[in-house]
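FIELD: query
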Amino acid sequence: MRELVYYVAVSLDGYIAGPNGQFDAFLVEGDHMDGINERFADTIPTDHAAALGIDQSTGIFDTVLMGANTYAAGLPEVTSPYRHLDQYVFTHRRRDPVDGVTFTDRDPVEVVRELKQTEGKDIWLCGGGDLATQLAEEIDRFVLKRQPVMFGSGIPLMAPGRYAPRRFHRVRGHDFDTGVSIVEYAAT
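FIELD: result
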């Protein structure tokens, strides 16, 4: 069965973006990028990967889920950031159709349960924090790119207190010279 994987950069103090939704303090250069490009090449926006000559055909994901604010980060320039994946954007706002993007106001839990029952690769939960909280019980794995920065406030990895306690075990981890650590946890 397909897994829902919350793969995301997170600050030392537990935020996936700063107080104004900014994430530009996260390191995007350094030795950790080679590890990301090798194992998670499919999480790089399609146009960026093409410009860098990165092959995305062997990735572990074929679907990406985003909240409306995460999707909006690339607008208006980029309307279909991950054309190599099936893209789902959860929003209650009406949107004009975009090739390769499914906008939906359906319950994210129902959508994920349906996707998990279909054939395919794993499902990438890209963000944001509210969507992750709604899907907390459905997350099978966390892959956290722990960054050596603090935001002080902002969008948390998960909203507090809106899900039942669950145990995860560490599957793998790697520390890089940049100070970035990539740690993976699977549900027990």
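FIELD: remark
The mean pLDDT is 94.
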